[in-house]
């Protein structure tokens, strides 16, 4: 588990943790970016990536997104914190992959891994799930059913969805990523981000200048991919990304 005594605040705004690599000569750092309304301090995947980093003498970085703003704001926050703490590899869970890819347009990243990556999910929600009468009303609040909240739903402001549009990736044919290797791990039984989304992203990245792209479909995998066998697969792919 990530020790509570290393959790701090970045720029008086974001809850984060940073463990510098112990060896400055061959220093490398791996970053975990959580998903929408997720918390790295309670995430099984964050704990797993942290333990991997410590065991392999890597640095570790993670943070929680602000409670307010849009994907554009969270990307800018992420870029700022990654630029201040040198990062070589990023693991992005769900929305975290979207943030990671946006960051890699600006600064070089050696490798990115997406776990149940949710790129452009805000637009899918807006166009496929939000009632038509609410879609253009920024003051409206959409009640999205969710098994991840104790209330059974998320209250989603429409202005959050609209303000996230400048961050959309899949409709940008000119996007260039400063990352030579991107791995996607996605559950076939993911009901939050359908597997076709991962397939579309794989095709998109393959035609946008990324040297090495892979998409591993986990036959019995769900969105979280936090079961022991899922994490064992993540461990294997982490080793491939970092050491080969």
Automatic annotation (TrEMBL):
InterPro entries (UniProt xref): AB_hydrolase_fold (IPR029058), ABHD10_acyl-thioesterase (IPR052382)
Keyword line: Hydrolase
SUPFAM superfamilies recorded: alpha/beta-Hydrolases
GO function term, MF aspect, one: hydrolase activity, hydrolyzing O-glycosyl compounds
Protein name: Alpha/beta hydrolase
Organism encoding this protein: Mucor ambiguus
């Amino acid at each position: 588990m990530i020790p509570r005594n290393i959790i701090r605040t970045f720029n008086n705004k974001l809850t984060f943790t940073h463990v510098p690599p112990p060896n400055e000569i061959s220093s490398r750092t791996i970053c975990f970016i959580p998903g929408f309304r997720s918390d790295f301090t309670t995430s099984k995947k964050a704990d797993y990536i942290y333990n991997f980093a410590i065991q392999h003498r890597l640095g570790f970085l993670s943070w929680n997104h602000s409670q307010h703003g849009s994907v554009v704001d969270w990307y800018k926050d992420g870029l700022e914190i990654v630029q201040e703490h040198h990062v070589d590899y990023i693991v992005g869970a769900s929305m975290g992959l979207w943030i990671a890819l946006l960051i890699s347009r600006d600064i070089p990243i050696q490798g990115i891994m997406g776990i149940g990556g949710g790129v452009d999910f805000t637009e899918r929600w807006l166009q496929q799930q939000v009632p038509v009468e609410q879609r253009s009303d920024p003051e409206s609040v959409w009640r999205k059913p969710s098994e991840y909240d104790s209330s059974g739903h998320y209250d989603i402001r429409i202005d959050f969805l609209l303000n996230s549009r400048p961050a959309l990736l899949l409709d940008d044919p000119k996007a260039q990523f400063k990352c030579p290797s991107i791995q996607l791990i996605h559950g076939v039984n993911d009901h939050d981000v359908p597997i076709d989304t991962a397939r579309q992203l794989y095709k998109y990245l393959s035609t946008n200048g990324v040297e090495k792209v892979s998409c591993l479909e986990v036959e019995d995998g769900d969105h979280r991919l936090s079961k022991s066998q899922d994490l064992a697969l993540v461990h294997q792919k982490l080793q491939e990304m970092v050491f080969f």
